[in-house]
Amino acid sequence: MDVKPVNLTAALASFADVYDPRIVARVNDYDVRIAHAAGEHVWHVHADTDEFFLVLDGRFDVALRDAAGRESTVTLHQGDVFVVPKGTEHKPSSPGGSILMFEPSTTLTTGDWHEGAIPDHVHSTTGTQL
Q1: How many CA atoms, within 13 angstroms, populate the side-chain half-sphere of residue 40?
Q2: How many whole angstroms separate alpha carbon 70 and alpha carbon 107?
Q3: Domain residues of the chain, as ranges?
Q4: Could you say which of 11, 49, 67, 109 has the lowest number of CB atoms within 10 Å?
């Protein structure tokens, strides 16, 4: 068992890739992941799990699409928390920032379904251990 704390500032400084989360802790079968965000992600959905975001710095936008195809955007700033309900299509984007996510360990960053090609700067992963 690792009993050392993780400093999120130092952890974020240890990598530069965007939308390529690092696992900083595990809580039961959930990962606590951090990531840099810049540019647009991909429209995707997590059918069976909510997705928790905490903005550590910068700005982070989450576009949402309802069942009728109507879109809206939630804008988050440092210290803001937002949960995307399971089954909700969403597309993160950011002019630059970093986020913390809390989600089941098997959750793929591009969801159970995604729309179109995955951009080169978006990594389709369940996270990498820090």
Answers
A1: 12
A2: 25
A3: 8-129
A4: 67
* Contact status, residue 58 vs residue 124, Cβ threshold 8 Å: no
Mean pLDDT, the chain, whole residue set:
95
Report the DSSP beta bridge partners of residue 34: 22, 100
Q: What is the pTM of this model?
A: 0.92
Domain covering 8-129 in this structure, CATH number = 2.60.120.10
Strands (E), the chain: 22-27, 30-40, 44-45, 51-65, 71-77, 81-84, 89-104, 113-114, 128-129
Contacts 24+ apart (CB under 8 A), 12-19: 12/36, 12/56, 12/98, 14/130, 17/123, 18/121, 18/122, 19/92, 19/109, 19/121, 19/122, 19/123
Cβ 79 vs Cβ 87: under 8 Å: no
The rounded distance, in Å, linking the Cα atoms of 47 and 129 is: 24
Q: Which residue has the tokens 């500032």?
A: 9
Query: Largest Cα–Cα distance in the chain?
Result: 48
129 contact partners, CB below 8 Å, separation of at least 6: 22, 23
